[in-house]
Structures are given as structure tokens and as C-alpha cells.
Design goal:
about 180 residues; about 75% helix
Length: about 180
Amino acid sequence: MTARPTAPRLARTLGTALAVAATAPAARPLGPVLALLAPAVAATAAWWAATPLVQRPTAPRTRTHLARLARHRNTALAVACVLLAALARPPLWAAACTTALLLGYLLCLDAATAGPPGHHQLRTRTTPVAAAAAAALVLAAAYAPVTPTPWSRLLAALAVTACATTTLLALRSRR
């Protein structure tokens, strides 16, 4: 199974932009040299890691960490970008851009690796809308001005429940 010719290029572009968007605010307090160097290193690593892996290697004997990282590099890129963005606490507009890039990268990656079912899934609009709703909800919950009160836990529980519900709706639409 091969991906469409434009899907790997689009995934690489989105993944690289995501890495730069997540790294730039995190590197700013480190000084002017590292503020320029960190996004460049992240872009180089993301250019390699963002390429969709259409056929996962099934060699169970790959025990080295580098082999495992290479096998799961798409997931590692997304997780690293989320962690960098969360640790940097960027302004709301930068977090919204990073969230949109992450959502676009994951949807493109899903469509590229799943083949025709993945492309069909994106055309039905249910999955992209549910994913966008979940991403917007998480972003809103992350930036909600909440002070530690008895209502704080209820608000957090409602946000987690809403995210779980949208995820469930997205997964149920695949069947």
C-alpha cells in the first residue's frame, strides 16, 4: 500500500511547521542563539520524523531504542511537539496555531497511512469535525482562567468527559 504522492509532502510540511511552532516559544528564554538554533534543529528532525510510515516494520527483534524511535517516529513527533508547547505556555494565538498544525498533521497522517479508508473517513466530515471540536475544547480548557475553588475539579471533569465523548464519537464513526 502506498500513500498518495502529495500526502507525504503535505505531512512533512505540516510536521515541520508544527515542530517549529512548538519549539520557538520554548527556546525564547534560552537566549538569542538557542532561540534560532532550537527551531532549526527541530525542523531538521521533524523533516525526517514527519514522513508517514505507511507500512510499519513488524520485526519484533528490534530492541534498540533508536530502532523503536524510527518505527514510531510519527507518534514521537506529535508527542514531543505537544510537550514542548505545553511546557512553554505560549500566548493563546500561538497555542491555537500549534493546535491547528497538530490537528492538520494528525489528520493528514491518518489519511496517508490508512489508504482509501482514511481518505473516505476525511470525506465524511464526522471525524475532522469531532477532532477539531476536541482540539478546541482542550485548548479552551487549557487557557480557561480557573482559580482553585470547589468548582475547579468539576470544570476539569466536564472537560475530560467532553473530550472522551468526542473521541468516542469519532471512533464509533469508523465502524
